């Protein structure tokens, strides 16, 4: 079933902004209160000394299994969209693990080197750790936005690790990350939002690690593309932002197979992730694509009661 909100909520910017802020943010926090109270912080020890932070919440029905969730870029475990679906799955009895990417949530101090979207190994390491520490007969994995890009790439590399995941769901992944970055740049409000969030994150690294003082000029950028062009050569093995973006694109060059059923949800009116980029996805056994007309970027308001359409979709897919 497609996401078809009432007419007044069909504007993509309204759905994006009010789907994650204002009254809905308060309502979701209230709904998630019991889940959050039952959650404990976990630090996962990955290879090469990398440490990642997460929140584990034991489920009320052990037979249900566990769902691992990944937030979007500059989001965190308490982002409205992630709290909302986590609470919905928790209410169904699932155990929940909300994994923070490097330098997201309260984790900036755990690693010296900064977050890069190309760092897939540590996400795979974290999945191994989570499944070893909290074994369940059923394991699901889902992500939103950049987290969705990561879970698709995890699904393509599970066999190499001998891992089993029963179902992967990717919601609004950047398939062509460079296109997504230009979409952010095009809209003043999103460009300003992501620049400010990234710079606040980088300020934390500057405060924690003395050698980051040499890079304070990055805080002066007001353009998301220019900031990538400046940041990427300093902190990655890529000479240009374009090369960096290509390295984690969801295309036939980077995806050769799916080692778990992987369902991808794209939105026609998403102001950040161009739905046209879905044509770049390779046709792989186990990968399915659903394109819905409305939802904005991780908004998915289904009505004036401010519930989220995507929560029900994920509950149905994992149940």
UniProtKB/TrEMBL annotation:
Q: Which UniProt keywords apply?
A: Hydrolase
Transmembrane stretches in the record are none
Superkingdom of the source? Bacteria
Q: Which SUPFAM superfamilies match?
A: alpha/beta-Hydrolases
Pfam families the record matches:
Abhydrolase_6 (PF12697)
GO molecular function ontology, one term from the record: short-chain carboxylesterase activity
Where the record annotates domain AB hydrolase-1, the positions are 67-301
Concerning its family, UniProt says:
Belongs to the AB hydrolase superfamily. AB hydrolase 4 family.
What is the name listed in the Swiss-Prot or TrEMBL entry for this protein?
Alpha/beta hydrolase
**Protein's organism:** Cohaesibacter celericrescens
